[in-house]
Amino acid sequence: MGQDTMSLQEKKTSPDNRQQGNVPPIFVVGVWRSGTTLLYTLLNQHPDIRLFYEGDLPVLWPMYHVPWSRKTWVEKWEYWNAGVSRHDLDPARLTDPVNSLAEAYEMAGMEYARQKGATVWGCKSPSYYNRLVTLAREFPKARFIVIWRDPEEICSSAIRAAASGLWFRRPGMTHKALLASETLRRQCKRLRSMGVSFHQIYYRDLVNDTEKTMRGICEFLNVPFTPAVTVLNKADRSAVFPGAHHSLAKSNKIVSRKEPVGPLPPGLVDKILRYKALWKAKVGDEWLLCQRFTEVGETKPGIWERTTDQLWYLALRVWDSAPQVCFSLLPTSVWHLYRKIKYKDPEWVHAQLTNKPSTLRNDSRETQPCLHSPKAPTEKRLSSPELQTHAKTE
């Protein structure tokens, strides 16, 4: 099935650790449009597991290095991507002082798992593709599940998503998606050298042989296999962002639809083939994704192409990261004012992310209540890919 399991660390959470609240998380990671939402939906049906849907609290890591932001991390998380309200968390249960990202996320994760009676918590997010090593250092016993998909399919899916997703219309989206696979591979290589527990799957295996793939994941996580993780008809997707891009994952069937290569520009097709030739020559079948290549280019990208591609890729990553850092360090009141000016309503973003009422207090000094009143704007709803990183584009 093409799976690769690394489990040099302890895979089983001991009862003593559970009682102490020291439960290592699960992180489900993949490049955008690689099937992470489908995998999240299936895993979340296991009675012992509960995962955040793109909670993305780790992308706000600078917040935990400054006292004024660390004290208001719950409010800032909510204002960033409605992470508290989307997951039906009670802010009153997240009031204990925290000194680090790990303490805050574990508190929220354990509370989220407690609601369901689960014993294991975690999060799925493509935003973690370049921070697996950082997460492993924050959570030394964390376990990672990495999903791979052919770059042609990822880029084709991203182009399709651009029809209704503003975020995917941003310059360089397919370029970033292509090179992000290499970044994720390097992150996995470093996890292996650190002895971190991770498990890899291939998207086609997940949709074509769901039971075998999910059995492998359950074995890796050391939880009993249950048929519930192979079907979608009873899945709870209330935390998932709205939008047509999750139509397949929100359906009651696992659809094995291969994204056509046709919509890809010829120049992009050639570039993908060149990079596949480079990756195949560099790492061969050591990389699960390389094992599944059915076609590679006859030539590899030259030094000039690789250099310019890396510089453009670096610029795109900085463009994504800068708003996260600014949001983490500046008071929420600044972003409240910014959104008020930009959207004419400081809570408009929340209304696009979820229909659930905000958990922000009416008497907050930094923010105003986020209420879905009849006066709320009726502008076009943002698509789910834009919503998952909407604050990044600000």
Give the gist of this structure:
The protein contains 17 helices and 6 strands. The longest helix is centred in the C-terminal third of the chain and has 27 residues, at about 305-330. It has helices at about 15-20, 35-45, 65-70, 75-80, 85, 100-115, 130-140, 150-160, 175-195, 205-210, 210-220, 265-285, 290, 305-330, 330-345, 350-355, 385-390, and strands spanning about 5, 25-30, 50-55, 120-125, 145-150, 195-200.
Describe this structure in words.
The protein has one domain: P-loop containing nucleotide triphosphate hydrolases (Rossmann fold, 3-Layer(aba) Sandwich), CATH 3.40.50. Helices cover 45% and strands 7% of the residues. It has 17 helices and six strands. The protein has helices at residues 15-20, 36-43, 67-70, 73-81, 83-86, 101-116, 132-138, 151-161, 173-194, 203-208, 210-221, 266-283, 288-291, 303-329, 332-343, 348-353, 384-388; strands at 4-6, 26-29, 49-53, 120-124, 143-148, 197-202. It has a six-stranded mixed sheet, sandwiched between helices. The radius of gyration is 21 Å and the shape is globular. The model is unreliable at 5-21 and 363-394 (pLDDT under 50).
Instruction: Estimate the mean pLDDT confidence.
Output: 83
Order of strands, widest sheet = 1-6-5-2-4-3
Seen as an oligomer or otherwise, the chain set is: single chain
Helical percentage: 40-55%
Provide the succession of SSEs: EHEHEHHHHEHEHHEHHHHHHHH
Estimate the strand proportion.
Answer: 5-15%
Main structural class: alpha/beta
CATH superfamily: P-loop containing nucleotide triphosphate hydrolases
Q: Work out the number of β strands.
A: 6
CATH domain topology:
Rossmann fold
> How much is the radius of gyration in Å?
21 Å
Number of helices: 17
Which overall shape is indicated by the principal axes computed on the Cα atoms? globular
Number of domains: 1
CATH architecture: 3-Layer(aba) Sandwich
The largest β sheet comes out as:
6 strands, mixed
The unreliable regions are: 5-21, 363-394
CATH class: Alpha Beta
Distance between the termini: 41 Å
